[in-house]
Design a protein that fits this description.
The complex is a heterodimer. By secondary structure, chain A is an all-alpha fold. In chain A, 67% of the residues lie in helices and 0% in strands. The radius of gyration of chain A is 23 Å and the shape is globular. The chains are: A mainly alpha, B mainly alpha.
């Protein structure tokens, strides 16, 4: 207790605001994205409230458009994309590789302030009257007709993009150059492989979004006309450029979750991850192939049939590495000493929900079927199964798993399990009915709908209210545990990674002496005892 | 200057490698940033080959060519300066860095003159844009790309000038040596990249429609 650690080193506010310690920056990001999560969640709550009645009595269509735009923009760029990389990744990456910090500590802090600046500009756009384009900013609506604060929102996202790029750059360089002696690539925990793949996408895809949004803003302000059909421009070019970023961005939003689940499954089955090299390379494969599937967002846009065929084929291909991961996690469970601690409940929920989201992704990759369900709730349900059922669940799993390391306190296990189970049921009740709605023909982004759809919408909204409570629970018990939770030992889960060698919470520079690595990750004896990577 | 590495590194060599790799990754980002724009340009040049050729003939090729020579020369000076700084010839290295930065300023000045001429010829897309003939629409698009691309590039040049100026000052103070020269090398990489982007822009902007 009296031992000095990164939390007690210097407690002045100023030392937090100007810190270059990756652990403290991670905490700053935690606070920021939690705020944005609840902003985006509040918009979602209003959307679900509105959709309880078919006549749309709660808000006008104009307000409704703004609500789903806020929800999308905030959740995608200000929660999902930074969620695991900037918080858990920031905290854990240097610890996992036995380093004293990331390669560029000051860039890391810059990344946080760019994120906050972008976030504030976007929030200002929301409060100044909102944006009604949807998170996709499709042209020419966004450049010519929308009466919302498109430029402000676009500028906010543009700025945040640089935060993404800096974080990705930092991780790539850190993982390449700062590994402890003996920590070869095939000894890296799978979380790092995932984050590496994620970082490659962050670095290579985000600049294209930046340029695209710059052109949108210039088009709207100065009428440069690059996406304006009247000026000979092509709105479809916008869609190509936008999805060239935004499809890989989907993998930014899921790969880190897959990395967390790989860690959790190994620890709580007391077994090495089955087919380590396949799981590792499948992350890279997803990142690479993910760059060549963007056209599946444009099957009905009028692109050529040949392009449609190629993008459809590539989208089926990208399912292969995803399936490898799911099969290998499942095989890891086989004959393991499976424990059902809260993080593991989240991991298991992830595997199930991600599988459902992934399989419905195959429906959508299929040209003919996609035409039928394009822009319906089927699509909404599909990507929420991946983004919320997958990524948010993994985020909570990782948060609970590393919570003792981050805070030095154990979370209350009973409440954590209750929240995990509640999230699982609330989630399914919210989004499974939306698959059915989609197949029945309910289009997305409408705030009035035929009364025969009401029963499914009511079910969905009921689920959403459960989900809302379930997401609030961790906020309370985790905060409580920071002050009253039991003290955490250095390695409460009996895990093998380097991050568990150092005390919880870690000292300012992570390790007394740089650990020397002699073993691959996830080595457990037959009786389930951990063999740490450095022993 | 620093004989000991920053706290997160084991030694200066590691610090040097980190700086280099970081800059290369950043340049990869930049390639994709300009890549998006050049893709858009290529799409429209393919759609409107004649319009783009005609519009390109309205650019100031004399200024463009001179500017290309200026940037290439400055890149050469930077490459020379980096190796001199490593050898310990601080005064000459600092002079060369400063000369490269000065050439960057000349580049921006020429670019400004060019913009002024284009403004006078009503080639800036907007209310005063005048382009006679059947290709007015695609000429508008061409000049939109022209101003966005050269504008973004000029911003990169301006940042590069400031970086080179700082490096020149530090070199003069003898901050770099064979053991420690990461900032000079990395700044050099950035400047070469800015130069390289210009080489592409030069070919895309000034050359179409000029071959008989």
């Amino acid at each position: 207790m009296t031992e000095r650690n990164y939390l007690t080193e210097d407690t002045r506010i100023i030392s937090w605001l100007f810190t270059t310690d990756h652990k403290r920056i991670a905490i700053l990001f935690f606070a920021a994205i939690t705020l944005f999560f609840f902003v985006g969640g509040a918009a979602a709550t209003m959307i679900r409230l509105e959709l309880v009645s078919p006549q749309g009595r709660f808000v006008t269509s104009d307000v409704y458009n703004r609500l789903f735009t806020i929800h999308g923009v905030v959740m995608v760029w200000f929660f999902l994309i930074p969620s695991i990389p900037s918080t858990l990744g920031n905290f854990i990456v240097p610890l996992m590789i036995g380093a004293r910090d990331l390669a560029f500590p000051r860039l890391n802090l810059t990344s946080f302030y760019l994120f906050m600046l972008g976030g504030c500009v976007t929030l200002y756009a929301v409060f100044a009257g909102g944006v009604d384009t949807g998170w996709t900013f499709y042209t020419p609506f966004s450049t010519m007709y929308s009466n919302g604060h498109v430029v402000l929102a676009v500028v906010g996202v543009f700025i945040t993009g640089f935060s993404s790029i800096l974080t990705g750059l930092n991780f790539i360089v850190t993982i390449h150059r700062l590994r402890a002696p003996g920590l070869t690539w095939y000894r890296l925990p799978l979380f790092l492989w995932s984050l590496y793949a994620t970082s490659v996408i962050l670095v290579l895809a985000t600049p294209v979004l930046a340029m695209t949004l710059l052109l949108v803003a210039l088009d709207r302000v100065f009428g440069v006309g690059i996406f304006d059909p009247d000026r000979g421009g092509d709105p479809l070019l916008f869609q190509h450029l936008f999805w060239f970023y935004s499809h890989p961005a989907v993998y930014i939003m899921i790969l880190p979750g897959m990395g967390v689940v790989s860690e959790l499954v190994a620890v709580f089955s007391r077994k090495a991850v089955f087919g380590y090299k396949f799981v590792a390379w499948s992350a890279i494969a997803i990142a690479v192939v993910g760059f060549f599937v963007w056209g599946h967002h444009m099957f009905v846009s009028g692109q050529s049939v040949f392009a449609g065929l190629v993008f459809s084929f590539m989208s089926f291909i990208v399912a292969v590495p995803s399936a490898i991961k799911v099969f290998n996690w499942t095989a890891t469970l086989h004959k393991g000493w499976v424990r059902f601690d809260a993080p593991m409940l989240y991991a298991l929920a992830f595997i199930g929900l991600f599988t459902l989201g992934g399989l419905t992704g195959l429906f959508l990759a299929c040209l003919a079927y996609d035409v039928y369900v394009t822009d319906t709730y089927f699509v909404i349900a599909h990507f929420h199964y991946i983004m919320v059922g997958g990524m948010v669940t993994a985020y909570f799993g990782g948060l609970h798993y590393w919570w003792p390391k981050i805070t030095g306190r154990m979370y209350p296990e009973y409440w954590a399990r209750a929240a995990a189970i509640l999230i699982f049921f609330g989630f399914n009740l919210t989004f499974f009915p939306q698959f059915i709605l989609g197949v029945l023909g309910m289009p997305r982004r409408y705030h009035v709908y035929p009364p025969e759809f009401q029963v499914w919408h009511v079910l969905s909204s009921a689920g959403a209210s459960i989900l809302a409570i379930a997401y609030l629970l961790p906020l309370f018990y985790l905060l409580w545990s920071m002050f009253y939770g039991a003290r955490a030992p250095a390695n409460p889960w009996g895990a093998t990674g380097l991050e568990w060698l150092t005390p919880s919470p870690p000292p300012k520079h992570n390790f007394e002496a740089t650990p020397a690595v002699t073993r691959p990750p996830y080595e457990y004896t037959l009786s389930g005892e951990a063999r740490p990577q450095n022993a | 200057m620093p004989e000991t590495p920053a706290f997160q590194f084991v030694n200066l060599r590691q610090q040097h490698e980190v700086a280099q790799l970081g800059m290369w990754v950043f340049l990869a980002t930049e390639v994709l940033f300009f890549g998006g724009l050049i893709l858009g340009y290529s799409v429209y040049r393919f759609m409107y080959p004649e319009g783009f050729a005609e519009a390109a003939r309205h650019t100031q090729i004399a200024i463009g060519t001179t500017n290309t020579a200026i940037l290439l020369t400055s890149s050469f000076l930077v490459a020379w300066a980096v190796s001199l700084a490593r050898l310990g010839a601080h005064r000459l290295a600092a002079l060369l860095f400063a000369a490269a930065a000065a050439l960057g300023c000349v580049f921006l000045l020429m670019k400004g003159i060019e913009y002024r001429i284009e403004y006078g010829e009503h080639l800036v897309p907007g209310y005063f844009f005048i382009f006679r003939g059947p290709n007015a629409t695609s000429a508008w698009l061409f000049f939109s790309f022209y101003f966005v691309a050269t504008g973004v590039h000029a911003l990169h040049v301006a940042i590069g000038i400031m970086v080179l100026a700082v490096i020149a000052l530090k070199t003069r103070r003898g901050a770099y040596s064979e053991r420690y020269h990461a900032p000079a090398t990395v700044a050099g990489l950035y400047w070469h990249f800015v130069d390289l982007v210009w080489v592409f822009l030069f070919a895309l902007i000034y050359l179409p429609g000029r071959a008989s």
